[in-house]
Amino acid sequence: MWPIRKRPQSDSTDDVRALADKIEDIEDGLAHVQRRFTRLQQQVTRWAREYDDGLDQEEDDILDQINERRAQHG
Fold first, then answer.
1. Distances in Å between the alpha carbon of 16 and those of 9, 36, 41?
2. pLDDT tens per residue, the chain (74 residues)?
3. Cut 0.90: pTM above it
């Protein structure tokens, strides 16, 4: 008698279904990650625009001060 028993033969249809379910789960997970990544990209874009707008305002203020001083001394 062998110390290791043979595995019972499984139905290949069950294996294919199980594999198809795993693939479907992976595809669903990938779609979820892509949606989350898109949302993060959008949020970063919003933050970058707000930051850039703030910088533009600061630059405008500095240029206004420079122009005022030139006008006073010019």
1. 14, 30, 37
2. 556 676 666 667 888 899 999 999 999 999 999 999 999 999 999 998 888 777 777 777 788 888 888 888 86
3. no
Q: Which residue has the tokens 């990650």?
A: 33
Residue where the block lists tokens 């199980």: 18
CA distance 45 to 53: 12
DSSP string, 15-46: HHHHHHHHHHHHHHHHHHHHHHHHHHHHHHHH
Question: Any idea what DSSP says for residue 3?
Answer: S
> Burial letters for 17-48: b for 16+ Cβ neighbours within 10 Å, e otherwise?
eeeeeeeeeeeeeeeeeeeeeeeeeeeeeeee
Rounded CA gap, 2 and 55, in Å?
78
